Amino acid sequence: MTERNSYIYNVLLSVDQLGNTIFGGNPDSTISARTGYFAARGSERFWVIQERVINYAFKPVDGSNHCREAWQADKNETMYEAGPVAKIAMALTVLPLCLVIGTALRIYKAFA
Fold first, then answer.
1. DSSP single-letter state for residue 80
2. Are 61 and 105 in contact (CB under 8 A)?
3. How many domains does the chain have?
4. Cα–Cα distance between 110 and 104 in angstroms, integer?
5. Backbone φ and ψ of 84, nearest 5°
6. What are the tens digits of pLDDT across the range 1-60?
7. Which long-range contacts (CB under 8 A, 24 or more apart) does 63-66 make?
8. Strand, helix or coil at 100?
9. Is the pTM above the cut of 0.70?
10. Spatial separation of the C-alpha atoms in residues 23 and 29, rounded to whole Å
11. Domain carrying residue 54
12. What are the residues whose beta carbons fall under 8 Å from the beta carbon of 78, sequence distance 6 or more?
């Protein structure tokens, strides 16, 4: 990974961790890791659906199991469940962002 790519990756990771924190999660974990953890536990349908959306968005660069792999990378972190308001806010943020990210990654892969 080049220095520029590493910088961009670190900025995006920080934004993801900030988002997770805003939605009541662990500040040292990402939305993807949190989603992968709770989807694997099968605790609620919300997490399973969100996992599918995120995995689809990142499939061009990470394969079809992005959230579970993110969780495994953060397996020593504590994952906090989200309340109903946080879940609504997360869904209203994650879905549109994943549509944009997924489209952008597919276009990038097509021309790279």
1. -
2. yes
3. 1
4. 10
5. -60, -40
6. 566 678 888 998 999 999 999 999 999 999 999 999 999 999 799 999 999 999 999 999
7. 66/32, 66/36
8. helix
9. yes
10. 12
11. 3-111
12. 26
